[in-house]
# Entry
Amino acid sequence: MKSEINSNKSFGILFFIVFLIVGFWPLLKSGDIRIWALISSFIFLILGLINSRLLTPLNRSWMKLGELLGKIVPPIVMAAIFFLVLTPMSFLVRIFGKDLLNLKSTNEITYWIKRDKNVGSMDRQF
# Structure
């Protein structure tokens, strides 16, 4: 119960700041102040400071939206990274004929790389 109250307070203050920015944003381009956004911001401030239970449904829906976006956005970002970064790099490596993993050496029994330097015993490392 206590964390829900603190969450409602943080939610109210966050949306106070958001609507305050929305209200004053047109001043940067010589526009008029958005009165509806300022009124909304002060309503959220008052409700946030008095820890109103009126913010609970809005806060829960905001959290559900965040969870939904958390399930949708990461696969899209990972796919973009894969197709825009890794795939072109793979094509470049194949075009230049590089064997980064040294898999083309067929005369070896194992793919392990022999070390020139002896690191000593790995017992008692710490």
In short: The mean pLDDT is 87. Helices lie at 2-24, 35-49, 55-95. Residues 78 and 84 are 10 Å apart (CA to CA). Residues 55-95 form the longest helix (41 residues).
